[in-house]
Design a protein that fits this description.
Helix content: under 10%
Low-confidence stretches: none
Number of helices: 0
Oligomer: single chain
Shape: globular
Largest sheet: 6 strands, mixed
Strand content: over 45%
C-alpha cells in the first residue's frame, strides 16, 4: 500500500520561499509519476504540476510557472516542491499524489502572510 507523507509547510512572508517534501513508501517509487496539487479555502483543488519517473516536469499551473519547481530524488523516495516568490494567493493545503490520483498524502498547510 502506497503511503505519502508531506512535510515542510508553515507560515512564510510574501516574497519568501519554502520547500515541501513528500516521502513515498509501500511500493516502488520509480514506477510512479508524481504530482503536487493544492486547495485553498473555498476554491477547487488545483494541480500545481507533475514530474515523471525520469525527472521531467510537466504542466505547471500558470499561476506558479517560473516560481515553483518540482523535483524528485529516486534514491530517497522523495518528491519536492520548491516554492519561491510566494504570494498570499499561494495560501493553501498542498498535497502530493501519484499522477493518476490513486494515492494522496494528507496534505500540509502553507500560509503566506505578513
Amino acid at each position: 500500500q502506497v503511503q505519502l507523507v508531506e512535510s515542510g509547510g508553515g507560515l512564510v512572508q510574501p516574497g519568501g520561499s519554502l520547500t515541501l517534501s513528500c516521502a513515498f513508501s509501500g511500493s516502488t517509487f520509480t514506477h510512479y509519476a508524481m504530482s503536487w496539487s493544492r486547495q485553498a479555502p473555498g476554491k477547487e483543488r488545483e494541480r500545481v504540476g507533475t514530474i515523471t519517473v525520469s525527472g521531467v516536469t510537466l504542466n505547471y499551473a500558470d499561476s506558479v510557472k517560473g516560481r515553483f519547481t518540482i523535483s524528485r530524488d529516486n534514491a530517497k523516495n522523495t518528491v519536492y516542491l520548491q516554492m519561491n516568490s510566494l504570494k498570499p494567493e499561494d495560501t493553501a493545503v498542498y498535497f502530493c499524489h501519484t499522477r493518476g490520483g490513486g494515492y494522496w498524502g494528507q496534505g500540509t498547510q502553507v500560509t503566506v502572510s505578513s
